[in-house]
Amino acid sequence: MIRRFEATMRRFARDRRGNYALIGAIAMVPLMGAVALAVDFTDLVRQKQETLNALDAAGVATAQQIVANVSDADAKAYAKNFFEANLSHVSPADTALSVTLPSNNAGGGTLKLCATLRYHPYFLPAAAMLIGRTAGDTTLTACSEVRLKNTLEVALVLDNSGSMSTNGSGTGQQRIELLKTAATELVNTLALQAGQMKQVTKPVQFALVPFSASVNVGSANKDKTWMDLDGISPIHHEDFDWTQMYKTVSGVDPNKYIEKVGAAYYQRGTGWGADAGKAMTRFTLYQDMMATTRTCTKKKNGSCQTYVDTTAQYQAWKGCVEARPYPYNADDTTPTTSTPASLFVPMFAPDEAGNFWTDSTHASTTSWGYTNNWWVDSADSLAVAKRQSDMRKYFVTKPYNAAAEPTDGGPNSGCTTSAITPLQDITTTTGKSTITNAISAMTPTGNTNVPEGLAWGWRALSSNEPFTDGRANTEKGNDKVVIVLTDGANTYSPIADATYAKNMSTYAAYGYTGLTYPGSGTVTRLFMNTSASVGKTTYTGANYTTALDEQMQTLCANAKNSNIIVMTVSLDLVDTKSAEKAAMTALKTCSSDSRFRKDPADPTGKTAAKLYWNATGATLSKSFKEIADELSNLRIVG
After folding, report:
1. Which InterPro entries does this one have (predicted)?
2. Which of these, 227, 253, 272, 378, has the minimum number of CB atoms within 10 Å of its CB?
């Protein structure tokens, strides 16, 4: 029996007739698995790639919306709609999109979009093997990041005060010449880099704000609506006394007089000709002041036989404006007639009193030595304060033989710098040459008023009036940078003048410090919103410097809170001198923090480096190259 079974088994083993079916049955399992893998793999790859493509497309499109300044909610809604519209073979119901907007309101930043795809496989176990998860988990997540393209707007706020004519330490060149070279190199470096950004218009723009005791906004702007064209600003008629020209005053021409209506003064009567009914302003003063020039037309034996007198406008407004009263001196508020104090008022340095008649026959005089005596006083013997503010004198033609105005004097006294150069696209030949030519034209003269320069640097970048060349203040993907350089402390010149006109200072951007701001009690405009450290009735150079320093810190804080990046440079200052050390500290405090560099003095590496450079004449060019690196990092896109 056993032998028979063994023989049967040996015959079965030798029989090959049923092996093909058996092998086919055994092989069917892996073959079907392979088919399942192929089907799900193909479909999975297709859906995954389609999701990624839609994600990338939505990222680029949404980035453009962000740059166009849509709201956060609208940007996220746009991203979702764009993403789902680009899903052809994937159901939007099987996806979930998350959008992370750039965290910064200025500068490019990164837009991040992440999508979750829930895949429905034909063969669940095979799909689970493909994605390396459990059979119940068939979701995939992918992300796409878009670095917004950065654009850059830079205002060069450069000291043009008289001390810039001094040779820079370690060099044989004037500081102003060293500054011209360094600033030009900076513009050229950024222009070369910006030229590589073909996908965005005006990638890098530069403005120039030369400053000394004041800032020149350009005489061509005299008719702009942001100027005080109607004389309604509370500072417009500061130290102007029009009462002597009222119709009710004895001796006033009834056909040519002044009438006050509200805060404005008007020209009344037919004697004004075409100007009758117009507001009397500093602009009309410049227009109406006439002077006579006498020239010789015929000589004989070395003597003039015939003269010709020519009468013409004495002087035109050069373009400088006074500082607005607080808070508008420290911000970029749009000027409007509904807020008169926000308007800009042209500088007009009053004619300071000349000789005082000491007797009734005008045979004897006394002089006070006022530095800016440039016109002829009224004929009667008014007190000196009245002589300075009496407006009748400006409507008397100045005779040809009157004394010449003092050097840097006249109605434009204190206006010594060239005009602001608004933002220029330095990727163009015209734009770059406009900026570099303006840099080359700078000349040093006058006092130092850093806060006024800084204020106009901010306004040159702002999209608000008076200069509207900058991109929208809220536009993402754009950095606005003010670079301030000075070689000394803030200065405002005091004078001992408590007896007569009580000016208490020379005339500059804050007018005379001896005059109080209307409605402020006894506080002059320069001292408004300053701390107890500033003596409100102390008219000294040191106190003026303290006040200007505080105005500067207020400006710096306001600018930085408005997403302006502030970079500061001190030139040839040393910390062994107390005044210079204080100026250095003020500039460092004013500066912004770097986004890219850490403070080398902090071993933890957590503190950002301050955007402040203390340069000497010999190292100024190196400092500006470091500034160029910082600006390049702001602009570079990933």
Report:
1. Tad_N (IPR028087), VWF_A (IPR002035), vWFA_dom_sf (IPR036465)
2. 253
